[in-house]
Amino acid sequence: MEVKKFMNKVFSRPKSLVDIPFTYCPGCHHGIIHRLIAEVIDELDIREKTIGVAPVGCSVFAYLFFDCDMIVAAHGRAPATATGIKRAKPDNYVFSYQGDGDLASIGTAEIIHAANRGEKITVVFVNNAIYGMTGGQMAPTTLEGQITQTSPYGRDSKTMGMPIRMCELLSTLKSPAYISRVALTKPAYIVKAKKAIKKAFQFQIDGKGFSLVEVLSTCPTNWGLSPREANEWLDKNMIPYYPLGAFKNSEEVS
């Protein structure tokens, strides 16, 4: 008992996360992403003014875990919902939390036009190259040759097209202020991911415009791999096709 008096707690759950266990599959990166977002919200001291938007997919569960105002949007419509909230409440900080089956498929038009209008919202885009919640179907971001429930022989670019690179696509637009892609398979990557997410929120705080951070994520359950194998697969296969880094940063424009 005497020892406990001298023990300091050096690691704890961020205030912007509800004190309940995550329910994501083992090895899924959603929990890490949630924590990074929550840490950023805490450090920027904006929790009381933050509103999150979660659409359909595994990302919908975000409303259970963030201890801030959360709204659930229809599939693919999170950018439109976030736009409406931000325009109605411009002094609040609005973010959408979307998967690739949502943002890069049914929601493609929504995200492109929100970015093109330079809406002052922050988007966290989780890319695990597959439809997670609905059983592992091919997503717009599924890699060439990747096996899914709807591409049992691997994605064939001749009939199914090439995987969509959303950061590269959105960065061709003039209006977005910040677009970046990060990963979470290594501690150094996680540190960089948090910096990117914090910068995206800071851009909104400063009124600079639309910001998006794409996070390459694993889906061990639907990939049919262990968590360790999934991290290795992401490093070997996803990063070469989806290179990490900032694709647009208005701070660097003279």
The tally of beta strands, per DSSP, is 7
Shape: globular
SS summary, helix count: 10
Helical amount: 25-40%
Q: Which CATH first-tier class would you pick?
A: Alpha Beta
Span between termini: 60 Å
Strand order across the largest sheet: 2-1-3-4-6-5-7
What is the typical, i.e. mean, pLDDT?
95
Q: Can you name the CATH architecture?
A: 3-Layer(aba) Sandwich
Low-confidence blocks of residues: none
Q: How much of the polypeptide forms β-strand, as a percent range?
A: 15-25%
Q: Nearest-angstrom radius of gyration?
A: 18 Å
Order of helices and strands: HEHEHEHHEHHEHEHHE
CATH superfamily: Thiamin diphosphate (ThDP)-binding fold, Pyr/PP domains
Tally of separate domains: 1
* Main sheet properties: 7 strands, mixed
Task: Find the CATH topology.
Answer: Rossmann fold
Characterize the structure shown.
The chain is of the alpha/beta class and 254 residues long. It has one domain: Thiamin diphosphate (ThDP)-binding fold, Pyr/PP domains (Rossmann fold, 3-Layer(aba) Sandwich), CATH 3.40.50. The chain is built from ten helices and seven strands. A seven-stranded mixed sheet has the order 2-1-3-4-6-5-7, with helices on both faces. Strand 1, helix 2 and strand 2 form a beta-alpha-beta unit. Helix 1 packs across helix 8 and helix 4 crosses helix 5. The chain is globular and about 55 Å long. The model has no long low-confidence stretch (mean pLDDT 95).
